[in-house]
Amino acid sequence: LGILQELGARVLPVDPVLRSTPPPGLVAPAAAEPRGRLSFALHPEEITPKCDNPTIEIFAAASPVDELREVLRRCMSAGLPWDQVEIIATDPVLYGSTLDSLAVQLEVQVTHAAGLPVWRTRTGRAAAGYLRWIQEDFPAEIPRALLQIGILTAPSDGEVVVGGARLAHCLRGLRIGWGRQRYLKRIDLKLEGLKAPASLRDDRSAEEIEARRERRKQELVALRTLFGAILAATPEVHDRFGATRAKVSPAALAGGLLTFLEFVPARTEIEIESRRRLEKRLLRVQENLQRESSFGAAIATLRNHIEVRVPSPASGDKRQPWSSAGGHLHFSDIPHGGLSGRNHTFVVGLHAGSTYDSGRQDPLLLDGDRRRVDRINLATSDQVLAERRYALDALLASLRGSVTLSYSAWESTEGRILAPSPTLLQVFRLMSADPSADYKTLHKTLRPLAGAIPAGAARLDSSDVWLANLSHEGTLLPASDRVLEAFPHLGMGLRAERLRESDVMTSHRGAIAPRPEVLDPRLSDKIVLSASRLEMLGQCPLRYFIRHVLRIEPPEDIEFTLDEWLTPMERGSLLHKVYEKVLRHAVQNQIHPRDEKFPKVAEEILEEEVTLTRHRVPPPSDVVFEAEAEGLRMDMRVFLRIIRPEKPRWAHLEIKFGMSEGKYEAVELDVPGGTIRMRGAIDRIDEVAPGELRVIDYKTGRAGSFSRSSGVYNGGRRLQHALYSAVAERILEGTAATMEYQFPTQAGQGEAISFARADLSDWPEVVGALIEMVELGNFVPTQDAGDCGICDYQTVCRAKRNDYGGASSPPAAWGKKHFSTLEAYEPLRRARGADK
Question: Cα–Cα–Cα angle for 785, 788, 792, nearest 5°?
Fold first, then answer.
């Protein structure tokens, strides 16, 4: 209390309007008096003579960002040089980070009284990323993110420089997941794979294939050089779950971090200084802290030693690197505030509950326990609060010149309103000469809050210019024409939104100019279809367009989950390979399914494939691995239960056609309007009688979606059985009497769903109807949101799946509305009605 009395000041009202000419290039309206601001002058003979217009002001803002922006606006409005302004924060971490972000955005130079935390610099962020990388068992997403934003770079050979975005994309495609041993192995495997001939499914020209191959080689070589050097310098550390208990020293970790920082460029003065200080600390650690300990203790020790703060290189005085510098805004906290001797001071963060206005007890040692420890004389919460308030009062009493106090009225992390500090209320009482003024009066005076819309004439950036010119008395006005005129791409987006919601089939709903000579598989020899590709077309033509016309492939990330090792697709691929190997081994070695050797052979093959898959896809833990491995063994038992009663009549196993590693060329099938070429792999073909075949395809999921209750073709969504039967007849010159889906897993309970040849006679008409949409360029969205439940492009369509298995999709809702009326849906209507 009595802060202003300690200043020796008499408070008198002055003109609250400070006018200044806005910077060139910014459009500013006529200056208007800022509302909710109190401005008072101190007697000139009782203040520092350097200040021409001594004032004390208070204001409230909507958030810490708005509070700091308002501070900068007031400086600009008053025409204050940055080196005459100091900002003092009650919370230096929150406000320091916020000011640093604003300063970078607005290109304002700032010095920090306590230095800038090294973690706020690019070098510090790189160091933090490296430490987290080795702590979490080397997850690939950490270096990928650093490469993407340019913090981490790969060495170049002087001729070819591979950009960070390219390297990040290449690293993502390696599907490393986590584990230090997988990086170089996966890179070498991909480099070896580049020597293989191009796949038949690749319909690009030879020149395009070779250019892509060379581009990928450059990326892989750069990644191998980068990770080869970093991993060689990184000591052995424990894995994600601490299974490896190798001891390590802080010196060894410091050596790995030093090598990592060699690939982190430092371009600005602050980055160079942070790099110099960090490397100096690391070299000291590397020289002195060589005693080995547990990994947790070693990395904690290293973090403690590199917890440095970086001064501004512009401070000039190496003996006092934390001092303010000319041409720079100065930021400080309460203990270090007011020492710069500047004429204009802003104290921010004066809300109730701030560090200097809250006396919360220490949760580890409460006040009652502290009082019982008499000999140590520990400070209680009220004593700590009294010390903090005294420090704040002493700071305010020491300030001279123009002083502005403020607080943020909203706590975004907890979603609550903040009240002003009692200190701020007392200042208001003294300024208004009203000792009875309460919080209600103070709130009314400080309204409206300073926010994104500037209230005065100053404009910090283009956002301020736009919001100021599109508002009236703090309220934004509709000005779509002006905005769209300045941002034509935004106008194109709004136009696309209107067309997408209209009742007309446009390009924004999947209609493109017909290009049958390029897209129609009946006319292009480069297009080789698969059953899954045609089923995608039948399920949702828009999905087909995104995947096979635009060629947008979803990223193949390995996601770390605590309770899952393999995805359903990876699990299915493993079981398919095991089933094929078991039957092939039985045929080659003449082992009957009823032979007692048969289960043992099957178990050995399964264990071998599980081991290989473990090296390719790392499990999250040994517990999860053993649980899923046991589940695979139970799936194998279901498969043996189906196979053992049968006679060994399987004549052909894993018949591949139209694939580079297959025995047969692409198979041509006749459909209305021409011929299509097919590729794929049939799991098994049994010869039930001379010239009579049974085509079998294994499914590792549940049998429900393949039930005959949904029809033979499920509206064009299920075509594999018909296509594989036709392919089998063409290759083996026999009659596919039946096609059977088998479900040899626990989930499928060993069920089998069969389709007779007579049921599949009209498949060419269904496929022809689907291909007609490709010919016409009408890639309409599906009319059933259930088709969007499992889709790689849910984000594109804003589709969502709820907790009960249902799905919602705006494109599907639009398709349902227009399915029966739009002509573009006519071919899909024929395919959907094929089962009726």
Answer: 165
